[in-house]
Specification:
The protein is mainly alpha-helical. The protein contains five helices and no strands.
C-alpha cells in the first residue's frame, strides 16, 4: 500500500536527481544556443546545482540511488518508443489503440460534435 511517507520518499528521490538534470540542461543550453547573458548567471546556477547534488548524495545516498534507478528505467522505454523507427504494424496498432483508450478514459481529448 502506498502510504504518505512512501510518497514523500519518492518525491525526495526524484528531487535530488532533478537538480542534476537541471544543471546539465543549463550547461547544454549555454553551449548549443550561446545565449547572450552574463556568464555569472549560468556559472552560479551550475555551482548551486552541484552543491545541492553533492550534499544530497552525501546526506542520503540510498534515496539518490533509488531516484537514479527510477530514471534509468526510462532508457528501455525510450529505445522501444522513440529510437526504434520501423515498428511492426501490429505493434503500431496496439500503441494507437492504447493511446486512444487512455485518452478517452482520462478525457484529455475533447469530444467531436
Amino acid at each position: 500500500m502506498l502510504s504518505p511517507e512512501a510518497c514523500h520518499r519518492c518525491v525526495r528521490c526524484e528531487q535530488k536527481n532533478e537538480q542534476r538534470f537541471l544543471k546539465e540542461t543549463v550547461c547544454s543550453l549555454n553551449y548549443v544556443f550561446s545565449y547572450e547573458v552574463n556568464i555569472l548567471l549560468p556559472v552560479s546556477f551550475v555551482l548551486a546545482c552541484l552543491f545541492l547534488i553533492v550534499v544530497s548524495i552525501w546526506k542520503t545516498p540510498a534515496e539518490c540511488c533509488i531516484g537514479l534507478a527510477i530514471i534509468i528505467t526510462g532508457v528501455p522505454v525510450y529505445f522501444f518508443g522513440v529510437w526504434w523507427q520501423n515498428k511492426p504494424k501490429w505493434l503500431l496498432q496496439v500503441i494507437f489503440s492504447t493511446t486512444a483508450t487512455c485518452q478517452k478514459m482520462m478525457e484529455v481529448v475533447p469530444q467531436e460534435s
